[in-house]
Amino acid sequence: AMAVLHYYQRPGAESVPVSLLRSAQAVLGGVRALHRELCYNVSWTGASPPSPQETQLLHWLFGCPLQSGDVAAESFLRPAPTDLLMEIGPRLNFSTAFSTNVASVCRAVGLGCVERVERAGLRGACRALPPGEGWEAALEGVLSDRMTEQRYEEPIRSFAVAARPAPTWHVDVLGGGRTALEGASRELGLAFDSWDLDFYTELFTRLGRNPTSVECFDLAQSNSEHSRHWFFKGRLLVDGKEVAESLFGSIMRTQESSNPNNVIKFSDNSSAVQGRAVCSLWPRDPSRPSCFEKRTSTRHVVFTAETHNFPTGVAPFSGAATGAGGRIRDVQCTGRGAHVVAGTAGYSFGNLHIPGESWSPACPPVPGLPPRARPAPQGLPPEGARDAPRRGQPVPGLPRSLAPPRGPLAAGGSVCGDPRSVSGWGTGSLPTSRPGVALPPEVRPPPAGGPQGQRWRLGLRQ
Per residue in 309-335, pLDDT tens? Predict the structure, then answer.
């Protein structure tokens, strides 16, 4: 039967940031220290518990290679009566990228019974006084990201969740017309504008059938401005007069007066400029483990950038991680496959307003700031981008702080303080043997991105 095993790593593997301790002290007086212990929750599908050899291998994977005895089946933390110990980890309704990578490593070393591994953190708060009413909820709000994390009230016994996908339903466009589609847009959060409502109402009326809720969700993504650039490529009116070309057209026209060295421009996941002959190592047989050999071939220079601004402001870690991952994916998907070389990470943000620092005064209430926006210190730097150097990329970066006021706040002005997260200026190399291939119109590209429930929600998480 499937079981969840727990492996605890001795505290000290990852330090607790001083800023987190200060935040806890600001919310709860008397907090003297915070301790963090990692817990690896392993979904084990074997008919029997791991053998001593398998247990030793799991300890080796989860522990420090230079230490022994730093992984155990029980927690190393021993809280005092006045302390509070809570386990906070990722929400269980989806498998994290960390779990996917660890499960792949486990299979590679012969641990085929490992199906899923989620890493949680046991946070121990040392307090001089006994905890009062509401202390746990207040501390949980400081130590966790409510969008992506949850508190485990007890050690995980199963990764199964009670939530079930909502059933698919039909939108009665044939009977209710535009009003029915407008109601579905509100219920599903699709943000259809007037043009979308008219277009899809006419489309399904002409097809003689009603769309499903999944189809409406897919249309909202695939036909969005982000994907199609309806406005960026559309007619442009200035003071009531139509401009000769679109915004996108004016940008593309700059290529007419620049260096004509583009190999790919405005037509792929990345751009590419003319490269040169390079001697590099190639696997003799890419289909299996084999020796490397020297080959000389022309390799073009790939260039791309990715911004993730609003998501980083709401959920710094996952927002920045998605930006870094998107940029890596864009490079790898250029042509018929390119290689990632390097990247950068840039963060622009408002005033930090660090508690206890005289040079960073307290932040006055800012009108118009989204209620879910995270304070600037919690988003700098969004460590989700740390995945880039883990994959062998050199990643230089930059932080910039700027929050100019737009008029006096007392008179209804505002402050520009929303973050800008740039995972970009990513470079790579594209072999000349892998240019893009033109596909006939009848080819149907399959949707990618995981199970259906996850695929439709890409980029639309609230």
Answer: 666 666 666 655 666 777 777 888 888
Indicate the burial class of 306 (C-beta count within 10 angstroms; 0-12, 13-18, 19 or more). Answer: buried
Three-class SS of residue 126? strand
* Phi, psi angle pair for 152, to nearest 5°: -95, 110
Exposure b/e, 374-395, CB count within 10 A at least 16 = b: bbbbbbbbbebbebbeeeebeb
Distance of CA 313 to the CA centre of its chain: 12
DSSP state string for 364-397: PP-TT--TTPPPGGGGSS-GGGGHHHHTT----E
Alpha-carbon distance of 351 to 400, in angstroms, equals 10
- Spell out the residues 6+ positions from residue 117 whose beta carbon is closer than 8 angstroms to its own: 40, 41, 42, 43, 98, 99, 102, 103, 106
| More reliable by pLDDT, 148 or 100 | 100
Exposure string for 418-427, b = 16+ CB within 10 A, e = fewer = bbbbbbbbbb
Pairing outcome for strands 397-401 and 339-349? parallel
**Domain 173-223 -> CATH class:** mainly alpha
8 A C-beta contact, residue 305 and residue 327: yes
Tokens of 105: 């490593």
Distance CA 53, CA 221 (A): 48
The first and second tokens of residue 112, run together, are 């085929």
- The answer to whether 376 and 360 have CB atoms below 8 angstroms apart is no
List where CATH 3.30.1330.10 sits in the chain. Answer: 259-437
**Burial of residue 218 (number of CB atoms within 10 Å: 0-12, 13-18, 19+):** middle
Distance CA 34, CA 123 (A): 7
Rounded Cα–Cα distance for residues 235 and 246 (Å): 6
Strands, sheet with 149-152, edge to edge from the N-terminal-most edge strand = 71-72, 3-9, 31-44, 114-127, 84-90, 149-152
Q: Which SS3 state, helix, strand or coil, does residue 150 take?
A: strand
Task: List, by residue range, all CATH 1.10.8.750 domains of the chain.
Answer: 173-223
Classify domain 259-437 at the CATH topology level: 60s Ribosomal Protein L30; Chain: A; (3.30.1330)
- How does pLDDT run across 233-268, given as a tens digit for each residue? 888 889 999 988 888 888 888 888 888 888 888 877
**What pLDDT is attached to residue 460?**
35
